[in-house]
Amino acid sequence: MKTRLALTLVLAVATTVMTAQPTLNTPAANSPAAGGTGGSVAAQPASPTPQLLVDQPGALNGRRGGTGQRGGGGAPRRGGPPVRLPVPAFIPAGPDAEALVKALAPHRVSPRAVPGANPPLNAEGDFIIGPDYVPAPEMTAVDGVPKGNVIRFTMNSAESKIYPGISKAANGTLDPENIYTLIVDSHPTSYTRTITVYVPAGYVPGTPAPLMVGFDGTGYLPTTMLDNMIAQKRIPPLVAVGITPGNFPQGTNNDAQGSQRGLEYDTMSGKLAEFVETEVLPLVEKNANVVITKDPEGRGAIGGSSGASAAFSMAWYRPDLYHRIISYSGTFVNQQWPFNPETPHGAWGYHENIIANSEVKPLRIWMQVSDADLLNPNVMKDNMHDWVEANNRMAAILRTKGYHYQYAFSLNSGHTTAPARNQTYAHAYEWVWQGYKPTGK
Asked: For the domain with range 142-363, which CATH number is right: 3.30.910, 3.40.980, 3.40.50, 3.30.1490?
């Protein structure tokens, strides 16, 4: 177990901006792709950037490694990263959040958000939620609200050309010749996987429907919430597809390096998007009698932990297919296996240099991490396994490049824990789907 020293963060408020009508198809005006310098999407004042002073004793304390198969361990800090990034500009969620965003002036604020408060829907940037959480009312069934239909079917690994199946006998050991990877006893294994399809009430067969793909099954696709928000017209009448990473015999270690889940979710490529597109969605359309839109503006992905980095990779590597991402406790760390010299630091590379050195993509990203999230929960000693640092750096580089994003830092919360998710699900869905206009394709 490793803990952080208590500290007071001095955070810039000027980099969090209001965007009443976000534009999704073009990069921000100051992004490199638009001929700018790649700075914040907010206009910067001529005087020195005002500061928001946030006292956060213990906000980053009490950090623990994972449990069970993720193991434990720690590592000393390495030297300065290749890309120097600013500290995220956290603003506590609540009735004063919008004023703080607009003020661009010094404020001294409480290190806690109003219980149950989420960031403003029309804001981009970095926000604090918690430490007290209230489930969103959209999570409770309401009498009279039409309910969507749920269809389930299974897929067999023998039918897959992309993922024929692997599993591991045990967790990996350190590679003495390469600190950025593990030696893992991984071998071919067959599996089945469950696909769950939510079809919104009132769907007209043959009509192209927007899509939300959820990883690790249906945990990030709460159907009651979808029923309520679709009925309220706060999100489009989307088809939601929950995909498990393989159903293995009880006791099989199906996470991280050497596992089927790790291979699908932690690999830095468009392979997972290709699998979903060519092997999963055709069966979804057939078994659920739906048509999925081909418009990437009408497609999103959501997940937690490695499922979150998988959702991001779906859109990053295939922006022709996906534009909208929701990430909870994203595993933007070095967990890719097998080792790939083209992306030697795995998903840590996103905020290390990949996003910085790439043209801005037309993505809209909502992301969250917890103050007690994972900290080096394995035997690796590469200093690229701090979930808080990784997500802070992701927010910083997204802001620097001018992406449309909102980041929620959750106090009194752990890795993908339910209280923060149940409070923010509806907010995250509504925020990430803003600006969507059906094209009929």
From this structure: 3.40.50
